[in-house]
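Checklist before submission:
- one chain only
- standard amino acids only
- sequence pasted in full

Submission:
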Amino acid sequence: MAKADPHRLKLSQLRALVAIADQGSFSDAALHLDLSQSAVSHAIATLEEELGVLLLNRGRQGAVLTPVGEHITAEARQVLRSLHSLCHKADQAKGLETGEVRIAAFRSVATHILPEVIRQFRQQCPGVTITIDEKFHYEMVESDLRQGRADVGFTYLPTRDEFDQWELLRDRYIVLLPPGAPEVPEPLTWAELATYPLILPPPDDGDRQYVDQLLHRWGQQIQPAYVVREDSTILSMVERGLGATIMASLAAEPIPAGLRIAELPQPLERVIGMIVLHDALLPPPVYAFLARLKAIWPQSQVKHPSASPGAENIKVQGNRRL
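Returned file contents:
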């Protein structure tokens, strides 16, 4: 069998392979890459033909990497990272007059933390484009950095060792009760909380998972009466007396007038931090943005995952806060 010729390989084939590995199927990879499924299938077929090995097992459950496919996909990721690094080095030569800072963040950070940072940064670098991609789960933020789709991310700490991370603030979760709610003990008891219809985000939301873990930890089986994605809609429903919600303080701002604020029976907080890929080759505009953010949040300091303290009521399992 002839040896594989690296000169015949195409970046589009490597992108297709990595997309299938990440998305789990040819159809989902095609949607992710904005290509037709036949184009993705052709890219993989020609890649397998050039390499002379089977990279993916196709079945009803989707596409699964073969053992050699796993190794080659890891190499493909490195190639794509190197390509991204090459482009960033070219941008570095342009200095701070042009360029882009790509940010991945969840909504409360994009709403309450980033605007002032961006305002000051634009005074320093008016020609640099700022792109903010809002996510509903912190793991989506981390995935964007990992895949080279963002330079700076905002997530929950501690996180994985592949990121350099700075703690920005600690944000406690509160219970928001409708106007006219009766006086409740401080903190609220589980029995009191159970008397209200609960309005929560869907199960795939990062904050919802935090709340579910708290309830599970304390043996509570409270089921939401309403499942709503947007924080503003949840607050509006509470304001109209449809129920109560558990929400991070920052996400709840501005809290509608009249809502009652109560503390949870057991405290819960999220540690919000800024992350970049460890040893990433970042262009000057990104370093300038990081410097501006740290100037505004002077308490920010680099944290290693294993050294970042957490709330006493939250366990850490393998570098991921629970």
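Reviewer check: The chain has twelve helices and 14 strands.
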